[in-house]
Amino acid sequence: xxxxxxxxxxxxxxxxxxxxxxxxxxxxxxxxxxxxxxxxxxxxxxxxxxxxxxxxxxxxxxxxxxxxxxxxxxxxxxxxxxxxxxxxxxxxxxxxxxxxxxxxxxxxxxxxxxxxxxxxxxxxxxxxxxxxxxxxxxxxxxxxxxxxxxxxxxxxxxxxxxxxxxxxxxxxxxxxxxxxxxxxxxxxxxxxxxxxxxxxxxxxxxxxxxxxxxxxxxxxxxxxxxxxxxxxxxxxxxxxxxxxxxxxxxxxxxxxxxxxxxxxxxxxxxxxxxxxxxxxxxxxxxxxxxxxxxxxxxxxxxxxxxxxxxxxxxxxxxxxxxxxxxxxxxxxxxxxxxxxxxxxxxxxxxxxxxxxxxxxxxxxxxxxxxxxxxxxxxxxxxxxxxxxxxxxxxxxxxxxxxxxxxxxxxxxxxxxxxxxxxxxxxxxxxxxxxxxxxxxxxxxxxxxxxxxxxxxxxxxxxxxxxxxxxxxxxxxxxxxxxxxxxxxxxxxxxxxxxxxxxxxxxxxxxxxxxxxxxxxxxxxxxxxxxxxxxxxxxxxxxxxxxxxxxxxxxxxxxxxxxxxxxxxxxxxxxxxxxxxxxxxxxxxxxxxxx
Length: 594
What we know:
Blueprint: H1 3-43, H2 61-92, H3 96-100, H4 110-126, H5 129-132, H6 136-142, H7 146-157, H8 159-182, E1 187-188, E2 191-195, E3 199-205, E4 217-221, E5 231-234, E6 245-251, H9 255-266, E7 279-286, E8 298-304, H10 309-324, E9 332-339, H11 352-356, E10 364-371, H12 381-388, E11 392-395, H13 411-436, H14 440-452, H15 464-493, H16 503-514, E12 524-527, H17 533-544, E13 548-554, H18 557-570, E14 574-576, E15 579-581, E16 584-590
Parallel strand pairs: 8-9, 8-13, 9-10, 10-12, 13-16
Antiparallel strand pairs: 1-7, 2-3, 2-11, 3-6, 4-5, 4-7, 14-15
Helix pairs in contact: 1-2, 1-8, 2-4, 4-7, 7-8, 8-15, 13-15, 17-18
Protein backbone atom coordinates (compact mmCIF):
# COMPACT_ATOMS: atom_id res chain seq x y z
CA UNK A 1 0.00 0.00 0.00
CA UNK A 2 1.42 3.32 -1.04
CA UNK A 3 1.76 6.37 1.15
CA UNK A 4 -0.93 8.16 -0.84
CA UNK A 5 -3.41 5.35 -0.21
CA UNK A 6 -2.55 5.34 3.49
CA UNK A 7 -3.09 9.08 3.68
CA UNK A 8 -6.56 8.65 2.17
CA UNK A 9 -7.54 5.74 4.43
CA UNK A 10 -6.31 7.32 7.67
CA UNK A 11 -8.96 10.10 7.86
CA UNK A 12 -11.68 7.61 6.98
CA UNK A 13 -10.53 5.25 9.72
CA UNK A 14 -10.42 8.10 12.22
CA UNK A 15 -13.94 9.17 11.30
CA UNK A 16 -15.14 5.59 11.59
CA UNK A 17 -13.60 5.11 15.03
CA UNK A 18 -14.95 8.46 16.20
CA UNK A 19 -18.42 7.62 14.91
CA UNK A 20 -18.29 4.20 16.55
CA UNK A 21 -17.31 5.73 19.91
CA UNK A 22 -20.10 8.28 19.67
CA UNK A 23 -22.60 5.58 18.80
CA UNK A 24 -21.63 3.47 21.83
CA UNK A 25 -21.81 6.47 24.14
CA UNK A 26 -25.20 7.43 22.71
CA UNK A 27 -26.45 3.91 23.41
CA UNK A 28 -25.33 4.24 27.03
CA UNK A 29 -27.19 7.56 27.26
CA UNK A 30 -30.28 5.86 25.84
CA UNK A 31 -30.07 3.17 28.53
CA UNK A 32 -30.04 5.88 31.19
CA UNK A 33 -33.12 7.35 29.56
CA UNK A 34 -34.84 3.97 29.90
CA UNK A 35 -33.85 3.86 33.58
CA UNK A 36 -35.44 7.28 34.07
CA UNK A 37 -38.54 5.94 32.35
CA UNK A 38 -38.63 2.97 34.74
CA UNK A 39 -38.47 5.34 37.72
CA UNK A 40 -41.27 7.40 36.22
CA UNK A 41 -43.37 4.24 35.95
CA UNK A 42 -43.32 3.85 39.75
CA UNK A 43 -43.07 7.54 40.67
CA UNK A 44 -46.76 8.28 41.21
CA UNK A 45 -47.75 5.05 42.96
CA UNK A 46 -46.49 6.03 46.47
CA UNK A 47 -48.54 9.26 46.55
CA UNK A 48 -51.93 7.72 45.81
CA UNK A 49 -53.98 8.66 48.87
CA UNK A 50 -57.34 7.10 48.17
CA UNK A 51 -56.16 4.03 46.27
CA UNK A 52 -53.34 3.42 48.76
CA UNK A 53 -51.33 0.92 46.72
CA UNK A 54 -48.62 0.85 49.39
CA UNK A 55 -51.16 0.21 52.16
CA UNK A 56 -51.33 -3.39 50.96
CA UNK A 57 -47.69 -3.70 52.05
CA UNK A 58 -48.45 -2.09 55.41
CA UNK A 59 -46.84 1.25 54.46
CA UNK A 60 -48.79 4.37 55.34
CA UNK A 61 -49.15 7.34 53.02
CA UNK A 62 -46.92 9.60 55.13
CA UNK A 63 -44.14 7.00 55.01
CA UNK A 64 -44.62 6.13 51.33
CA UNK A 65 -43.91 9.74 50.34
CA UNK A 66 -40.21 9.06 50.91
CA UNK A 67 -40.30 6.44 48.14
CA UNK A 68 -41.74 9.09 45.85
CA UNK A 69 -38.82 11.36 46.77
CA UNK A 70 -36.24 8.64 46.17
CA UNK A 71 -37.74 7.63 42.83
CA UNK A 72 -37.99 11.27 41.74
CA UNK A 73 -34.36 11.93 42.62
CA UNK A 74 -33.20 8.81 40.78
CA UNK A 75 -35.32 9.71 37.76
CA UNK A 76 -33.86 13.23 37.57
CA UNK A 77 -30.30 11.89 37.86
CA UNK A 78 -30.82 9.36 35.07
CA UNK A 79 -32.67 11.87 32.88
CA UNK A 80 -29.98 14.53 33.40
CA UNK A 81 -27.24 12.12 32.35
CA UNK A 82 -29.34 11.06 29.36
CA UNK A 83 -29.94 14.65 28.25
CA UNK A 84 -26.43 15.93 28.97
CA UNK A 85 -24.84 13.01 27.12
CA UNK A 86 -27.06 13.58 24.09
CA UNK A 87 -26.15 17.28 24.04
CA UNK A 88 -22.48 16.34 24.36
CA UNK A 89 -22.65 14.07 21.31
CA UNK A 90 -24.40 16.79 19.35
CA UNK A 91 -21.76 19.28 20.44
CA UNK A 92 -18.76 17.28 19.25
CA UNK A 93 -20.64 16.52 16.03
CA UNK A 94 -21.00 20.28 15.40
CA UNK A 95 -24.77 20.09 14.84
CA UNK A 96 -26.09 20.99 18.30
CA UNK A 97 -27.87 24.13 17.09
CA UNK A 98 -29.74 22.16 14.45
CA UNK A 99 -30.75 19.29 16.73
CA UNK A 100 -31.64 21.24 19.87
CA UNK A 101 -34.52 23.11 18.23
CA UNK A 102 -35.73 20.34 15.93
CA UNK A 103 -39.37 19.29 16.10
CA UNK A 104 -39.42 16.10 14.05
CA UNK A 105 -42.47 15.05 12.15
CA UNK A 106 -41.90 11.40 13.02
CA UNK A 107 -39.83 9.68 15.70
CA UNK A 108 -38.58 11.24 18.92
CA UNK A 109 -39.13 14.97 19.29
CA UNK A 110 -35.92 16.33 20.80
CA UNK A 111 -37.32 19.74 21.75
CA UNK A 112 -40.09 18.07 23.77
CA UNK A 113 -37.46 16.04 25.63
CA UNK A 114 -35.53 19.19 26.49
CA UNK A 115 -38.68 20.85 27.85
CA UNK A 116 -39.40 17.71 29.89
CA UNK A 117 -35.90 17.70 31.40
CA UNK A 118 -35.93 21.41 32.28
CA UNK A 119 -39.39 21.10 33.85
CA UNK A 120 -38.30 18.08 35.89
CA UNK A 121 -35.17 19.86 37.13
CA UNK A 122 -37.20 22.89 38.25
CA UNK A 123 -39.65 20.66 40.12
CA UNK A 124 -36.83 18.69 41.76
CA UNK A 125 -34.87 21.78 42.86
CA UNK A 126 -37.93 23.41 44.44
CA UNK A 127 -38.77 20.16 46.26
CA UNK A 128 -35.49 20.08 48.17
CA UNK A 129 -35.99 20.28 51.97
CA UNK A 130 -34.31 23.69 52.14
CA UNK A 131 -37.02 25.15 49.90
CA UNK A 132 -39.97 22.87 50.66
CA UNK A 133 -39.92 23.53 54.41
CA UNK A 134 -39.18 27.25 54.30
CA UNK A 135 -41.05 28.22 51.11
CA UNK A 136 -43.81 25.65 50.91
CA UNK A 137 -45.91 27.79 48.55
CA UNK A 138 -43.13 27.79 45.95
CA UNK A 139 -42.78 24.02 46.19
CA UNK A 140 -46.52 23.44 46.04
CA UNK A 141 -47.34 25.61 43.05
CA UNK A 142 -44.31 24.63 40.96
CA UNK A 143 -45.00 20.95 41.58
CA UNK A 144 -48.15 21.34 39.49
CA UNK A 145 -45.86 21.53 36.46
CA UNK A 146 -46.12 17.75 36.45
CA UNK A 147 -48.87 18.15 33.83
CA UNK A 148 -46.43 19.83 31.42
CA UNK A 149 -43.79 17.24 32.31
CA UNK A 150 -46.05 14.29 31.46
CA UNK A 151 -47.44 15.81 28.24
CA UNK A 152 -44.02 16.64 26.79
CA UNK A 153 -42.63 13.29 27.90
CA UNK A 154 -45.36 11.68 25.82
CA UNK A 155 -44.41 13.83 22.83
CA UNK A 156 -40.73 12.99 23.29
CA UNK A 157 -40.89 9.26 24.01
CA UNK A 158 -43.86 8.38 21.83
CA UNK A 159 -46.98 6.37 22.51
CA UNK A 160 -45.22 2.99 22.78
CA UNK A 161 -42.99 4.12 25.65
CA UNK A 162 -45.82 6.11 27.20
CA UNK A 163 -47.91 2.96 27.66
CA UNK A 164 -45.22 1.72 30.06
CA UNK A 165 -45.77 4.59 32.48
CA UNK A 166 -49.46 5.00 31.73
CA UNK A 167 -50.81 2.75 34.56
CA UNK A 168 -49.30 5.01 37.22
CA UNK A 169 -50.60 8.16 35.52
CA UNK A 170 -54.01 6.55 35.03
CA UNK A 171 -54.32 5.58 38.71
CA UNK A 172 -53.07 9.00 39.80
CA UNK A 173 -55.69 10.70 37.63
CA UNK A 174 -58.50 8.61 39.14
CA UNK A 175 -57.18 9.17 42.66
CA UNK A 176 -56.98 12.93 42.09
CA UNK A 177 -60.49 12.93 40.65
CA UNK A 178 -61.99 11.05 43.61
CA UNK A 179 -60.24 13.33 46.10
CA UNK A 180 -61.63 16.43 44.38
CA UNK A 181 -65.13 14.98 44.48
CA UNK A 182 -64.75 13.97 48.13
CA UNK A 183 -63.80 17.52 49.11
CA UNK A 184 -67.08 18.77 47.63
CA UNK A 185 -69.25 20.19 49.04
CA UNK A 186 -67.30 22.23 51.54
CA UNK A 187 -68.23 22.06 55.20
CA UNK A 188 -67.60 24.42 58.12
CA UNK A 189 -65.49 24.42 61.26
CA UNK A 190 -67.93 23.99 64.15
CA UNK A 191 -65.67 25.41 66.84
CA UNK A 192 -62.04 25.95 67.71
CA UNK A 193 -59.97 25.94 70.88
CA UNK A 194 -56.95 28.21 71.27
CA UNK A 195 -54.06 26.91 73.38
CA UNK A 196 -51.49 29.13 75.14
CA UNK A 197 -48.68 27.51 73.10
CA UNK A 198 -50.11 29.07 69.92
CA UNK A 199 -51.88 25.93 68.80
CA UNK A 200 -55.48 25.60 67.73
CA UNK A 201 -57.79 22.61 67.90
CA UNK A 202 -60.39 22.45 65.13
CA UNK A 203 -63.70 20.66 65.69
CA UNK A 204 -65.12 19.33 62.41
CA UNK A 205 -68.44 17.61 61.59
CA UNK A 206 -68.31 13.88 60.89
CA UNK A 207 -70.83 11.37 59.66
CA UNK A 208 -71.83 8.94 62.40
CA UNK A 209 -71.09 5.99 60.13
CA UNK A 210 -67.51 7.05 59.40
CA UNK A 211 -64.94 4.94 61.22
CA UNK A 212 -61.21 5.56 61.17
CA UNK A 213 -58.27 4.09 63.02
CA UNK A 214 -56.07 6.07 65.42
CA UNK A 215 -53.07 7.91 63.92
CA UNK A 216 -55.15 8.66 60.80
CA UNK A 217 -54.64 11.96 58.99
CA UNK A 218 -56.86 14.32 57.03
CA UNK A 219 -55.98 16.98 54.47
CA UNK A 220 -57.46 20.44 54.97
CA UNK A 221 -57.95 23.33 52.60
CA UNK A 222 -59.32 26.63 53.87
CA UNK A 223 -60.29 28.75 50.83
CA UNK A 224 -60.27 31.98 52.84
CA UNK A 225 -56.51 31.45 53.34
CA UNK A 226 -55.58 29.74 50.07
CA UNK A 227 -57.65 28.23 47.29
CA UNK A 228 -55.00 25.68 46.37
CA UNK A 229 -52.99 24.66 49.42
CA UNK A 230 -53.75 21.39 51.22
CA UNK A 231 -52.13 20.56 54.56
CA UNK A 232 -52.19 17.25 56.43
CA UNK A 233 -52.94 16.94 60.15
CA UNK A 234 -53.23 14.00 62.53
CA UNK A 235 -56.66 13.30 63.98
CA UNK A 236 -56.62 13.55 67.77
CA UNK A 237 -60.11 12.19 68.45
CA UNK A 238 -61.50 8.67 68.33
CA UNK A 239 -64.40 7.65 66.11
CA UNK A 240 -65.45 5.19 68.81
CA UNK A 241 -66.14 8.02 71.26
CA UNK A 242 -67.10 10.94 69.00
CA UNK A 243 -69.82 9.92 66.57
CA UNK A 244 -70.48 13.32 65.02
CA UNK A 245 -67.17 15.14 65.41
CA UNK A 246 -63.50 14.79 64.72
CA UNK A 247 -60.74 17.08 65.90
CA UNK A 248 -57.25 18.03 64.80
CA UNK A 249 -54.61 20.15 66.53
CA UNK A 250 -52.62 22.62 64.43
CA UNK A 251 -49.35 24.09 65.70
CA UNK A 252 -49.18 27.57 64.22
CA UNK A 253 -45.59 28.10 63.08
CA UNK A 254 -45.80 28.75 59.34
CA UNK A 255 -47.58 31.37 57.27
CA UNK A 256 -50.67 29.27 56.52
CA UNK A 257 -51.14 28.04 60.10
CA UNK A 258 -50.48 31.51 61.55
CA UNK A 259 -53.18 32.94 59.29
CA UNK A 260 -55.57 30.31 60.61
CA UNK A 261 -54.70 31.16 64.22
CA UNK A 262 -55.19 34.90 63.64
CA UNK A 263 -58.50 34.28 61.90
CA UNK A 264 -59.87 32.25 64.81
CA UNK A 265 -58.45 34.59 67.44
CA UNK A 266 -60.25 37.46 65.74
CA UNK A 267 -63.49 35.57 66.43
CA UNK A 268 -63.02 36.07 70.18
CA UNK A 269 -63.77 39.77 69.78
CA UNK A 270 -66.83 39.16 67.60
CA UNK A 271 -70.38 39.02 68.85
CA UNK A 272 -72.15 35.67 68.75
CA UNK A 273 -74.64 36.97 66.19
CA UNK A 274 -71.84 38.19 63.93
CA UNK A 275 -69.60 35.15 64.32
CA UNK A 276 -67.57 34.51 61.20
CA UNK A 277 -67.95 31.16 59.46
CA UNK A 278 -64.87 29.38 58.10
CA UNK A 279 -65.55 27.03 55.16
CA UNK A 280 -63.16 24.11 54.87
CA UNK A 281 -62.60 21.35 52.31
CA UNK A 282 -61.49 17.98 53.64
CA UNK A 283 -59.89 14.89 52.13
CA UNK A 284 -59.61 11.68 54.09
CA UNK A 285 -59.24 10.37 56.67
CA UNK A 286 -56.37 8.13 55.62
CA UNK A 287 -54.80 5.75 58.09
CA UNK A 288 -53.65 2.21 58.80
CA UNK A 289 -56.02 -0.63 58.08
CA UNK A 290 -55.70 -2.08 61.60
CA UNK A 291 -54.87 -0.94 65.13
CA UNK A 292 -51.49 -2.59 65.51
CA UNK A 293 -50.84 -1.04 68.92
CA UNK A 294 -53.56 -3.19 70.53
CA UNK A 295 -51.65 -6.40 69.88
CA UNK A 296 -48.80 -5.51 72.25
CA UNK A 297 -48.61 -6.24 75.96
CA UNK A 298 -46.93 -2.89 76.65
CA UNK A 299 -46.48 0.38 74.79
CA UNK A 300 -43.63 2.87 74.90
CA UNK A 301 -44.70 6.13 73.24
CA UNK A 302 -42.05 8.76 72.46
CA UNK A 303 -43.27 12.13 71.17
CA UNK A 304 -41.55 15.39 70.37
CA UNK A 305 -43.46 18.68 70.15
CA UNK A 306 -46.54 18.51 67.95
CA UNK A 307 -45.72 14.83 67.42
CA UNK A 308 -47.96 14.13 70.41
CA UNK A 309 -51.11 14.45 68.27
CA UNK A 310 -51.29 10.87 66.88
CA UNK A 311 -50.75 9.49 70.39
CA UNK A 312 -53.78 11.39 71.67
CA UNK A 313 -56.02 9.36 69.37
CA UNK A 314 -54.31 6.15 70.54
CA UNK A 315 -54.97 6.99 74.20
CA UNK A 316 -58.60 7.83 73.46
CA UNK A 317 -59.06 4.56 71.58
CA UNK A 318 -57.47 2.45 74.32
CA UNK A 319 -59.63 4.14 76.96
CA UNK A 320 -62.73 3.46 74.86
CA UNK A 321 -61.72 -0.18 74.35
CA UNK A 322 -61.15 -0.61 78.09
CA UNK A 323 -64.48 0.93 79.06
CA UNK A 324 -66.40 -1.22 76.58
CA UNK A 325 -64.38 -4.35 77.46
CA UNK A 326 -63.79 -5.21 73.82
CA UNK A 327 -60.65 -7.09 72.88
CA UNK A 328 -57.26 -6.93 74.52
CA UNK A 329 -55.43 -3.73 75.35
CA UNK A 330 -51.85 -3.02 76.48
CA UNK A 331 -51.53 -3.44 80.22
CA UNK A 332 -48.79 -0.84 80.63
CA UNK A 333 -48.03 2.36 78.72
CA UNK A 334 -45.22 4.83 79.18
CA UNK A 335 -45.48 8.19 77.39
CA UNK A 336 -42.26 10.19 76.91
CA UNK A 337 -43.06 13.75 75.84
CA UNK A 338 -40.23 16.14 74.88
CA UNK A 339 -41.16 19.84 74.56
CA UNK A 340 -39.33 23.15 74.43
CA UNK A 341 -41.61 25.15 76.74
CA UNK A 342 -43.82 24.04 79.61
CA UNK A 343 -46.86 25.63 77.99
CA UNK A 344 -46.62 23.00 75.23
CA UNK A 345 -47.80 20.46 77.82
CA UNK A 346 -51.24 22.03 77.41
CA UNK A 347 -51.67 19.92 74.27
CA UNK A 348 -52.36 17.02 76.66
CA UNK A 349 -55.52 18.75 77.81
CA UNK A 350 -57.86 16.33 76.02
CA UNK A 351 -56.35 13.33 77.87
CA UNK A 352 -55.83 15.03 81.22
CA UNK A 353 -58.59 12.95 82.80
CA UNK A 354 -56.76 9.78 81.74
CA UNK A 355 -53.47 11.08 83.10
CA UNK A 356 -54.80 12.16 86.48
CA UNK A 357 -57.27 9.31 87.01
CA UNK A 358 -56.38 5.75 86.15
CA UNK A 359 -59.66 4.37 84.80
CA UNK A 360 -59.00 0.78 85.75
CA UNK A 361 -56.48 -1.59 87.24
CA UNK A 362 -56.32 -3.42 83.92
CA UNK A 363 -53.99 -0.87 82.36
CA UNK A 364 -51.45 1.58 83.66
CA UNK A 365 -50.38 4.87 82.07
CA UNK A 366 -47.32 6.86 83.09
CA UNK A 367 -46.28 10.24 81.69
CA UNK A 368 -42.74 11.59 81.69
CA UNK A 369 -42.26 15.12 80.33
CA UNK A 370 -38.93 16.71 79.43
CA UNK A 371 -38.89 20.51 79.07
CA UNK A 372 -35.64 21.33 77.29
CA UNK A 373 -35.55 25.15 77.24
CA UNK A 374 -36.71 26.03 80.75
CA UNK A 375 -35.05 25.73 84.12
CA UNK A 376 -36.33 23.86 87.15
CA UNK A 377 -39.67 25.19 88.37
CA UNK A 378 -40.67 22.50 90.86
CA UNK A 379 -44.16 22.20 89.38
CA UNK A 380 -45.88 18.85 89.00
CA UNK A 381 -47.68 17.55 85.93
CA UNK A 382 -51.05 18.26 87.53
CA UNK A 383 -50.11 21.85 88.31
CA UNK A 384 -48.77 22.48 84.82
CA UNK A 385 -51.87 20.96 83.25
CA UNK A 386 -54.06 23.16 85.42
CA UNK A 387 -52.10 26.26 84.39
CA UNK A 388 -52.07 25.45 80.68
CA UNK A 389 -55.61 24.08 80.45
CA UNK A 390 -57.13 27.55 80.26
CA UNK A 391 -58.03 27.17 76.60
CA UNK A 392 -60.26 29.65 74.83
CA UNK A 393 -63.17 28.20 72.90
CA UNK A 394 -64.54 29.94 69.82
CA UNK A 395 -67.90 28.83 68.44
CA UNK A 396 -67.97 29.72 64.77
CA UNK A 397 -70.96 30.56 62.64
CA UNK A 398 -72.31 28.67 59.65
CA UNK A 399 -74.06 29.48 56.39
CA UNK A 400 -76.71 27.03 55.30
CA UNK A 401 -76.50 23.28 55.93
CA UNK A 402 -73.39 21.64 57.35
CA UNK A 403 -72.19 18.64 55.37
CA UNK A 404 -70.58 15.88 57.37
CA UNK A 405 -67.29 14.24 56.47
CA UNK A 406 -68.04 10.88 54.87
CA UNK A 407 -64.50 9.74 54.19
CA UNK A 408 -63.00 8.27 51.01
CA UNK A 409 -64.82 5.88 48.73
CA UNK A 410 -64.87 2.17 49.46
CA UNK A 411 -62.41 -0.14 47.73
CA UNK A 412 -65.20 -1.83 45.75
CA UNK A 413 -66.50 1.48 44.41
CA UNK A 414 -62.98 2.66 43.53
CA UNK A 415 -62.37 -0.59 41.64
CA UNK A 416 -65.62 -0.16 39.73
CA UNK A 417 -64.78 3.43 38.78
CA UNK A 418 -61.28 2.41 37.68
CA UNK A 419 -62.80 -0.32 35.53
CA UNK A 420 -65.24 2.12 33.91
CA UNK A 421 -62.43 4.59 33.19
CA UNK A 422 -60.27 1.85 31.66
CA UNK A 423 -63.03 0.61 29.37
CA UNK A 424 -63.91 4.12 28.19
CA UNK A 425 -60.24 4.93 27.58
CA UNK A 426 -59.53 1.86 25.44
CA UNK A 427 -62.77 2.25 23.48
CA UNK A 428 -61.93 5.83 22.52
CA UNK A 429 -58.29 5.00 21.76
CA UNK A 430 -59.39 2.28 19.34
CA UNK A 431 -62.02 4.50 17.73
CA UNK A 432 -59.69 7.48 17.35
CA UNK A 433 -56.92 5.33 15.88
CA UNK A 434 -59.28 3.84 13.30
CA UNK A 435 -60.52 7.30 12.34
CA UNK A 436 -57.40 9.49 12.41
CA UNK A 437 -54.44 7.11 12.08
CA UNK A 438 -54.28 5.18 8.79
CA UNK A 439 -53.49 1.50 9.12
CA UNK A 440 -50.64 -0.22 7.29
CA UNK A 441 -53.00 -1.88 4.82
CA UNK A 442 -54.51 1.47 3.91
CA UNK A 443 -51.05 2.99 3.55
CA UNK A 444 -49.86 0.20 1.23
CA UNK A 445 -53.03 0.44 -0.85
CA UNK A 446 -52.72 4.22 -1.17
CA UNK A 447 -49.08 3.81 -2.18
CA UNK A 448 -49.99 1.35 -4.95
CA UNK A 449 -52.70 3.66 -6.20
CA UNK A 450 -50.29 6.58 -6.20
CA UNK A 451 -47.65 4.62 -8.10
CA UNK A 452 -50.15 3.51 -10.71
CA UNK A 453 -51.33 7.08 -11.16
CA UNK A 454 -48.79 9.59 -12.43
CA UNK A 455 -50.89 12.59 -11.55
CA UNK A 456 -51.27 11.94 -7.79
CA UNK A 457 -48.48 11.70 -5.24
CA UNK A 458 -48.71 9.37 -2.21
CA UNK A 459 -49.99 10.90 1.01
CA UNK A 460 -47.41 11.64 3.65
CA UNK A 461 -47.30 9.54 6.79
CA UNK A 462 -49.19 10.98 9.76
CA UNK A 463 -46.99 12.81 12.29
CA UNK A 464 -46.08 10.80 15.37
CA UNK A 465 -47.56 13.41 17.68
CA UNK A 466 -51.04 12.69 16.29
CA UNK A 467 -51.14 9.39 18.19
CA UNK A 468 -49.97 11.22 21.32
CA UNK A 469 -52.78 13.75 21.05
CA UNK A 470 -55.28 10.92 20.62
CA UNK A 471 -54.04 9.26 23.83
CA UNK A 472 -54.39 12.51 25.76
CA UNK A 473 -57.88 13.08 24.35
CA UNK A 474 -58.98 9.55 25.24
CA UNK A 475 -57.59 9.96 28.75
CA UNK A 476 -59.48 13.23 29.28
CA UNK A 477 -62.73 11.74 27.98
CA UNK A 478 -62.40 8.68 30.24
CA UNK A 479 -61.82 10.89 33.27
CA UNK A 480 -64.80 13.05 32.32
CA UNK A 481 -67.09 10.01 32.12
CA UNK A 482 -65.75 8.66 35.41
CA UNK A 483 -66.26 12.07 37.00
CA UNK A 484 -69.92 12.06 36.03
CA UNK A 485 -70.48 8.59 37.51
CA UNK A 486 -68.53 9.43 40.68
CA UNK A 487 -70.48 12.66 41.24
CA UNK A 488 -73.80 10.83 40.94
CA UNK A 489 -72.69 8.14 43.41
CA UNK A 490 -71.28 10.72 45.80
CA UNK A 491 -74.37 12.87 45.92
CA UNK A 492 -76.51 9.83 46.64
CA UNK A 493 -74.30 9.12 49.65
CA UNK A 494 -73.94 12.61 51.09
CA UNK A 495 -76.47 13.69 53.68
CA UNK A 496 -77.79 17.16 53.15
CA UNK A 497 -77.57 18.31 56.74
CA UNK A 498 -76.37 17.07 60.12
CA UNK A 499 -77.84 18.13 63.47
CA UNK A 500 -75.96 20.89 65.22
CA UNK A 501 -74.94 20.59 68.84
CA UNK A 502 -75.71 23.64 70.88
CA UNK A 503 -72.94 25.65 72.46
CA UNK A 504 -74.18 24.76 75.90
CA UNK A 505 -73.88 21.03 75.23
CA UNK A 506 -70.40 21.49 73.85
CA UNK A 507 -69.28 23.52 76.85
CA UNK A 508 -70.54 20.82 79.20
CA UNK A 509 -68.56 18.26 77.24
CA UNK A 510 -65.42 20.40 77.43
CA UNK A 511 -65.74 20.90 81.18
CA UNK A 512 -66.33 17.22 81.66
CA UNK A 513 -63.12 16.41 79.83
CA UNK A 514 -61.05 18.53 82.21
CA UNK A 515 -62.52 17.32 85.49
CA UNK A 516 -59.98 15.62 87.73
CA UNK A 517 -60.28 13.58 90.87
CA UNK A 518 -56.69 13.54 91.94
CA UNK A 519 -53.25 13.78 90.45
CA UNK A 520 -51.19 10.68 89.93
CA UNK A 521 -47.96 11.23 91.78
CA UNK A 522 -45.80 9.04 89.59
CA UNK A 523 -46.00 11.36 86.57
CA UNK A 524 -42.70 13.22 86.24
CA UNK A 525 -41.53 16.52 84.77
CA UNK A 526 -37.86 17.19 84.03
CA UNK A 527 -36.53 20.64 83.17
CA UNK A 528 -33.42 21.79 81.36
CA UNK A 529 -32.40 18.71 79.42
CA UNK A 530 -33.26 15.99 76.96
CA UNK A 531 -34.25 12.49 78.05
CA UNK A 532 -31.66 9.78 78.51
CA UNK A 533 -33.43 7.29 76.29
CA UNK A 534 -31.15 4.42 77.23
CA UNK A 535 -32.11 4.74 80.90
CA UNK A 536 -35.77 5.06 79.95
CA UNK A 537 -35.61 1.87 77.87
CA UNK A 538 -33.75 -0.08 80.55
CA UNK A 539 -36.20 0.94 83.26
CA UNK A 540 -39.23 0.16 81.12
CA UNK A 541 -37.87 -3.27 80.20
CA UNK A 542 -37.41 -4.10 83.86
CA UNK A 543 -40.94 -2.96 84.69
CA UNK A 544 -42.51 -5.02 81.90
CA UNK A 545 -40.28 -8.10 82.30
CA UNK A 546 -39.30 -7.79 78.64
CA UNK A 547 -42.74 -8.71 77.34
CA UNK A 548 -44.08 -8.01 73.86
CA UNK A 549 -43.43 -4.24 73.61
CA UNK A 550 -44.49 -1.84 70.91
CA UNK A 551 -42.33 1.28 70.55
CA UNK A 552 -43.98 4.16 68.71
CA UNK A 553 -42.18 7.43 68.03
CA UNK A 554 -43.35 10.64 66.39
CA UNK A 555 -41.08 13.65 66.23
CA UNK A 556 -37.93 14.98 64.57
CA UNK A 557 -35.78 12.64 62.51
CA UNK A 558 -32.98 12.73 65.08
CA UNK A 559 -35.38 11.45 67.74
CA UNK A 560 -36.59 8.67 65.45
CA UNK A 561 -33.06 7.54 64.67
CA UNK A 562 -32.11 7.48 68.35
CA UNK A 563 -35.16 5.42 69.31
CA UNK A 564 -34.69 3.03 66.38
CA UNK A 565 -31.06 2.48 67.34
CA UNK A 566 -32.01 1.71 70.93
CA UNK A 567 -34.72 -0.72 69.82
CA UNK A 568 -32.17 -2.62 67.79
CA UNK A 569 -29.68 -2.56 70.63
CA UNK A 570 -32.11 -3.58 73.38
CA UNK A 571 -33.57 -6.39 71.30
CA UNK A 572 -30.42 -8.37 72.06
CA UNK A 573 -30.07 -10.48 75.17
CA UNK A 574 -30.65 -8.27 78.17
CA UNK A 575 -30.48 -8.78 81.95
CA UNK A 576 -33.95 -8.28 83.39
CA UNK A 577 -34.22 -8.76 87.15
CA UNK A 578 -31.02 -10.80 87.21
CA UNK A 579 -32.36 -13.06 84.47
CA UNK A 580 -31.06 -13.08 80.93
CA UNK A 581 -33.98 -12.53 78.57
CA UNK A 582 -34.41 -11.41 75.01
CA UNK A 583 -37.16 -8.76 74.89
CA UNK A 584 -39.25 -8.29 71.79
CA UNK A 585 -39.31 -4.62 70.73
CA UNK A 586 -41.34 -3.66 67.68
CA UNK A 587 -40.45 -0.20 66.32
CA UNK A 588 -42.97 2.02 64.52
CA UNK A 589 -42.22 5.56 63.32
CA UNK A 590 -45.08 7.99 62.72
CA UNK A 591 -44.66 11.08 60.56
CA UNK A 592 -46.16 14.48 61.30
CA UNK A 593 -44.52 16.19 58.31
CA UNK A 594 -44.48 15.13 54.66
